[in-house]
Structures are given as C-alpha cells and as structure tokens.
C-alpha cells in the first residue's frame, strides 16, 4: 500500500548548516504519527518543508503526498491538495472574530451552506467554546482557545491530512488534555495526522507510531507503545531514570 505521505532521502540546508540529513519517513492513510526530539533536531523544519513553507533552494530529496511529488510546490498548492498545517504559536488573526478566522480556513470550499453545516455539526461540537465566542475577537481568546481556533480553522478546509506543530506549547495541563482528546477524535473521524510535540509523554500516549529525531536524523522509529517502553527514550525524553 502506498503511504499517504512519503519523504525520501530528504536533506535540508540552512546556509551551510546541514539541518536534516537523509530523512526517510512515511505516514499511511488514517494513521496518527508523532515526531519527538530535542529542540533544534529538525522537527519543525520537516513540517514546514512538507507544507511548502521553506525555501526550496535548501532542500534535497523528494516528498510525495497521495503519490504526487510536492517538494517543489508552494504552500497554497499543497493546501489545495488536501494537506493543512497548524503552525506553532497558533497564528490566528487577532482583529478578526472567531467565526471570521474559521471561514478563512474554508476559502477553497465553494458550498457555503455545507461549510456552515460543518461548523455547526463538527467544529463547534468538537470545540464548544468556539461557538460560545464566535463573535469575539480572536486576539482576546486565551492561549488554549486560540489553539482550538487554529485547529478548527485547519479542519474546516476538510483536509485529508493535518500537520500540527507543538499543539501543547504554552498551555495548562488541563487544556493540553482537552486539545489532545480533540486531536484523537479528529483522527478517529478519518483525518490522517502527523504532529511534532515537545511533550513526549502525551505524544507517545496519543499517536500510534513515532519517530525520534536527533541532530537532524531519525534515531528511532517504532510503535509509540514500544518507544514509550524503551529505556533510552525514557531517560532522554520521558524524564525517567
């Protein structure tokens, strides 16, 4: 079976710095896969390159989505193929309302009645607080609410696959739990997910399979259950001796 997303012999250079070295990674349709590793390991660069948000001049190798090569495409063309990214730090439009932010995520969809149905029957059910605050300016939301909005904005575009960069960043533990329950539900509804996460414990408890990045390379690849029980992973990423 051909993977939904496949990265082959991928290298990324930032000037003279070799950030990512010979990366081979795949995500199958319907899977939820996580990337963990220390800061500076190349996790965010990998997501941004998949999404078409980095300079192609710094890239060697091939990236395929649904069998189509995408490593030379711009971000808007990657999105049009059905791959959306939720960026680290949320990046909501602070002076637009919650509803206006969500509608920006639906810009490629033509049937506005269908978009409204998705808002009512999916997004607002997944994140009830967005319904409560739909006329509120996004800049006045809490960090957790902004993360819900960023995920909802990506989801309203009906992507086949979502990339999430550090969804727990800067959030309280109770909100992190809520966000990851929603991510799990999105995956169960059929959206394939690849996410980068600094909180390795919750990442390995949520995803089915994982990659451990170290100095721009894959140090380990396995099921999340096996990674969570690996002694090296426990010591380096789970705070266990």
H/E series, N to C? Answer: EEEHEEHEHHHHEHEHEEHH
Write the CATH architecture name. Answer: 3-Layer(aba) Sandwich
Number of domains: 1
CATH class identity = Alpha Beta
The amount of beta strand, in percent, is 25-35%
> What is the helix tally?
10
In round numbers, the mean pLDDT is 93
Largest sheet: 6 strands, mixed
Shape: globular
Overall structural class, as computed from helix and strand content, comes to alpha/beta
Give the key terms.
241 residues, alpha/beta, six-stranded mixed sheet, 10 helices
Question: Can you offer a commentary on this structure?
Answer:
With 241 residues, the protein is an alpha/beta fold. The protein has a single domain, classed as Rossmann fold, CATH 3.40.50.300. The strands form 2 sheets. A 6-stranded mixed beta sheet has the order 6-7-8-3-9-10, with helices on both faces. Strands 2-1-4-5 form a 4-stranded antiparallel beta sheet, with helices on one face. Strand 1 and strand 2 form a beta hairpin. Helix 3 packs parallel to helix 6 and helix 6 runs parallel beside helix 7. The radius of gyration is 18 Å and the shape is globular. The model has no long low-confidence stretch (mean pLDDT 93).
């Amino acid at each position: 079976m051909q993977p939904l997303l496949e990265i082959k012999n991928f290298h990324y250079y930032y000037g003279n710095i070799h950030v990512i070295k010979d990366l081979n990674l795949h995500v199958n349709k319907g899977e939820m896969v996580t990337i963990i590793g220390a800061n500076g390991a190349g996790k965010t660069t990998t997501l941004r390159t998949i999404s078409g948000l980095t300079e192609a001049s710094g890239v060697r190798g091939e990236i395929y989505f649904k069998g189509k090569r995408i490593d030379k495409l711009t971000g808007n063309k990657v999105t049009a193929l059905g791959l959306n990214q939720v960026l680290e730090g949320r990046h909501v439009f602070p002076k637009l309302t919650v509803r206006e932010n969500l509608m920006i995520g639906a810009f490629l969809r033509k049937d506005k009645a269908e978009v409204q149905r998705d808002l009512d029957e999916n997004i607002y059910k997944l994140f009830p607080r967005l319904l409560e605050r739909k006329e509120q300016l996004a800049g006045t939301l809490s960090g957790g609410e902004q993360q819900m909005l960023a995920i909802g904005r990506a989801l309203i575009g009906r992507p086949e696959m979502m990339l999430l960069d550090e969804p727990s960043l800067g959030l309280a533990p109770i909100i992190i739990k809520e966000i990851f329950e929603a991510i799990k539900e999105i995956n169960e509804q059929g959206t394939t997910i690849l996410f980068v996460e600094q909180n390795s414990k919750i990442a390995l408890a949520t995803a089915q399979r994982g990659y451990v990045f170290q100095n721009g390379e894959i140090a380990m690849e396995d099921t999340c259950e096996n990674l969570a029980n690996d002694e090296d992973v426990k010591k380096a990423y789970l705070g266990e001796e």
